[in-house]
Design a protein that fits this description.
alpha/beta, 15 strands, Rossmann fold, nine-stranded mixed sheet, phosphatase activity
């Protein structure tokens, strides 16, 4: 029996217009009224996640920054797993050999290393990545990251060096790497994965998300539910991108990929629901509650 549902936000709970449909909202409310805990599991920061759901009051908890933090429904910090300074230096060194932009995520602010001109050049690269994602959206049906990139551009500031950033005392939870060439990102990804205690995933075809190895959605979700007396077989997970891979590939009771998900994620999931523009979360939840889980297409 499923007692917990954990869902990604972008490309999963939200449609391509980044809106929560009435169908998805009703299905979540129905699940919670049935006694099922509903969790958000996202690469977003908490304050960005609640902009979607705050007025809806739909979530019983949040796994944010791809697993680097867990937050209660009241906004209380429950756990925190920042990157080590040593690993930040190592990732930045790897990235310096490639034409990519690296954004360092703290809770209150996003940073880029360099002066104003270097930052402007990085913004130009990010625009190239935006256009590449839009092309991919047309060709594959996968979501593009325009709104996310625009949001990051508004709040990213330049700092001269990593040491200057560390003097501010704010932990870095995630490195967000953006490039305009998928092959280059794949090469960089292979290098980064050689660094101990690092996890690398992606939410779009033109980015990498670097966190501590323990800060992965699936691992953090397991800790969260077990601390509350639930078992993995009692959990349904829903996602669409490779930063959802850990919670889709782990042996949770019901694992569901969106129809618009990356192919590797679909292969890892036990079921595939409808597209995010067709209320795929609602379809999966309603099938579960109606006792017709088999109606969700098997991979």
């Amino acid at each position: 029996m499923i007692k917990v549902i954990a869902s990604d936000i972008d490309g999963t709970l939200l449609n391509r217009e980044h809106r929560l449909s009435l169908e998805n909202k009703k299905a979540i409310m129905r699940a919670r009224e049935s006694g099922i805990m509903f969790l958000i599991s996202t690469g977003r920061k908490y304050k960005d996640a609640i902009t979607v759901l705050e007025s809806e009051n739909l979530a019983d908890g949040y796994i944010t920054l791809s697993g680097a933090q867990t937050i209660s429904s009241q906004g209380e910090l429950l756990s925190s797993i920042p990157l080590t300074r040593d690993n930040i230096f190592k990732v930045m060194k790897c990235a310096s050999s490639y034409p990519v932009s690296v954004i360092l995520n703290t809770i209150e602010q996003d940073y880029m290393i360099g002066n104003q001109l270097e930052m402007e050049e990085s913004l130009r690269l990010r625009e190239m990545a935006l256009h590449e994602e839009k092309r991919a959206e047309r060709e594959t049906g996968h979501r593009d990251g325009r709104s996310l990139i625009q949001m990051l551009k508004k709040r990213t500031v330049a700092v001269s060096t990593l040491d200057t950033l560390f003097l501010k005392g704010a932990p870095v939870y995630k490195l967000f790497i953006i490039g305009s060439n998928q092959q280059i990102l794949n090469q960089l990804d292979c290098e980064i994965r050689q660094i101990p205690d690092i996890a690398s995933a992606s939410s779009y075809i033109t980015n990498l998300e670097i966190t501590h190895a323990k800060a992965q959605k699936g691992l953090v979700l397991r800790d969260f539910i077990e601390q509350r007396g639930y078992k993995m077989k009692e959990v349904m997970t829903i996602g669409d991108s490779m930063n959802d891979y850990s919670m889709i590939s782990m042996d949770y009771g019901v694992t569901v990929a969106m129809e618009n998900a990356m192919e590797q994620l679909k292969k890892a999931a036990k079921y595939v629901t409808t597209d995010c523009d067709q209320h795929g979360v609602a379809y999966a939840i309603n099938c579960l509650l109606d006792g017709n889980i088999g109606d969700i297409r098997k991979k």
